[in-house]
Amino acid sequence: MSFEFGTVIKAWADHVGPRLAQRVATEAPKGSGALKHSISYRRTVTGLQVVSSAHYATYVSYGTGPHPIDPVHARVLHWVDKKSGTEVFAMHVDHPGTRPNPYPQRALIAMKAEITGTLGVLASGHLASGVMGRVKSLGSLLGGH
Questions:
Q1: Chain centre distance of CA 43
Q2: Are 19 and 108 in contact (CB under 8 A)?
């Protein structure tokens, strides 16, 4: 008797991946919506990854330390002050940093039971099926269609 762990992991990732990516997107800060819409998942050999194509996603999730900001594509920095509504111009800014927003971790915590439970159901169903190398349909194992 053999156990095809890869088959179970693929079925698990295909079920949990879209749901987890959606939950991470829901937990992401609202802003323009670009971060939320950049979140997706991909199946890996050992499981799945929830990823973002937004270059700043890591900075949002883990925060930043204090850092200088200098103009790159212009001579000066320019923004509108959120409190006063006035335009601000500067040659240099010493940014104080940003606090972490662990939105992916919140999603994992919220879905922990589903993530682990689905894997358990699939593994048990695979062992009980007696058909090695194949997993019953996820719907039938989880009591669905």
A1: 13
A2: no
**C-beta atoms surrounding 6 within 10 Å:** 11
Element holding 142 (H helix, E strand)? none
Q: In this predicted structure, what is the pLDDT of residue 132?
A: 44
Three-state SS for 138? helix
E-only strand ranges, 2-145: 39-43, 48-52, 67-69, 77-80, 87-90, 93-95
Average pLDDT of the residues in 82-94: 96
Do you know the residue count of the chain? Answer: 145
* Structure confidence at residue 145 (pLDDT): 45
Residue-wise pLDDT tens digits, 36-74:
999 999 999 888 999 999 999 999 999 999 999 999 999
What integer pLDDT is reported at residue 123 of this predicted model? 84
Q: If DSSP codes are grouped into helix, strand and coil, which group holds residue 39?
A: strand
Q: Which of 43, 50, 51, 42 is nearest to 10 (CA)?
A: 43
**Cα–Cα distances in Å, from 29 out to 77, 90, 141?**
24, 27, 35
